[in-house]
Design brief:
342 residues; alpha+beta; two-stranded antiparallel sheet; 13 strands; globular
């Protein structure tokens, strides 16, 4: 996974566009309660390791190597046994297809609260407070409002798995790549149009009706990549901001997580790696392919299997939709990866 210098750029944006609000200090006590101190960080790490089985199914040299109940992407990688690449150096290899864990994304209604670290981040520049205390209130008309943190989370490297393959993510360690509280574009629908101007094209009844098809498709199988403005039962991709209306808190967290992925692709902080095009390396993908990703929560509750983007919460959030689970979450992101291994 390639990335820019997200924290530096976010801080510069914050200095250029100051926002009136509260910083991390006001959320310190609520964060401590929501994350149970270090309890959340222990659960995130334990659940991430315990659910590493989501790497399956694996296809090696065009052959499925193991039976699994995990869902695969609707886009299959190359079935050719042998591949050849020039970059980063000429080589001949064997095709490999698997699901690679790359990120943890944290939707949080308590600004600067990070369950992966079990603490409130020591940042207090006055941004991101619009989400504080806004969830499911009469004032917001059931609008769930979240900030989001993106954490590079190299589980394979932590466990010493698949490190011999040049095409998989193995560089660096755990690191915060993006903090939405520092990004003014995440706080405002109009500002978000700077990087997502197509939001105006899909803000019409016809485009919204098409999302019903995506909702049905994701419920029984996979989302539809051509309907890139839809998030199935989780409403729409646009605007790429903090609010999600008309869904439960857990589905709102899933929607925020998916929007964050789209935003990172648009900002060229995430790249594509699926299909024949991804065999020799990652490539720019400004419009995210939804079928490339599987997501699932590891805090405050653990769902053991990857969830396709847009799948209705009636399948996976049963008995989990309660006030204790509404404020902070951590979701592991698996990306389908096809590569030329050697």
């Amino acid at each position: 996974m390639k990335c820019t210098k997200p924290l530096v750029s976010s801080i510069l944006l914050a200095l250029l566009f100051p926002t009136i609000g509260f910083g991390g200090a006001i959320g310190e006590i609520p964060c401590r309660v929501a994350t149970r101190g270090v309890g959340s960080s222990v659960q995130v790490v334990a659940a991430s390791v315990a659910t590493v089985h989501n790497v399956f199914p694996i296809r090696f040299a065009g052959v499925d190597m193991n039976p699994t109940s995990n869902e695969d992407s609707s886009i299959n990688g190359s079935k050719e046994p042998i591949c050849k690449c020039i970059d980063p150096f000429p080589r001949v290899g064997i095709t490999l297809s698997l699901w690679e864990p790359i990120l943890v994304i944290e939707p949080t209604s308590i600004p600067y609260c990070t369950p992966t670290a079990g603490m409130s981040l020591p940042i207090d520049i006055g941004m991101g407070a619009g989400s504080f205390g806004q969830n499911s209130s009469k004032i917001t008309r059931l609008t769930n409002t979240y900030q989001g943190h993106v954490i590079k989370y190299p589980i394979f490297k932590m466990l010493g798995l698949f490190l011999d393959f040049v095409c998989l993510q193995s560089d660096g360690g755990l690191d915060y790549l993006y903090i939405s509280e520092l990004d003014p574009l995440w706080q405002n629908d109009i500002w978000a149009a700077i990087i997502g101007p197509e939001a105006f094209l899909v803000a019409n009844p016809i485009a919204e009706m098409a999302c019903m098809v995506d909702s049905v498709s994701s419920a029984i199988g996979h989302p539809l990549d051509p309907l890139w403005w839809c998030l199935g039962s989780w409403n729409g991709t646009f605007p790429m901001t903090q609010a999600n209306k008309g869904t439960t808190a857990m589905q709102a967290q899933a929607a925020i997580t998916s929007r964050m992925l789209m935003k990172l692709h648009r900002q060229l902080q995430l790249f594509g790696g699926i299909g024949n095009q991804g065999l020799c390396g990652l490539y720019p993908m400004p419009i995210m392919q939804k079928t490339q990703y599987g997501i699932f929560p590891v805090y405050p509750f653990v769902w053991p299997n990857r969830i396709p983007i847009g799948r209705t919460g009636t399948i996976w959030e049963t008995l989990q939709e309660n006030p204790a689970n509404q404020h902070v979450g951590a979701w592991v992101i698996y990306r389908k990866r096809d590569c030329c291994a050697f």
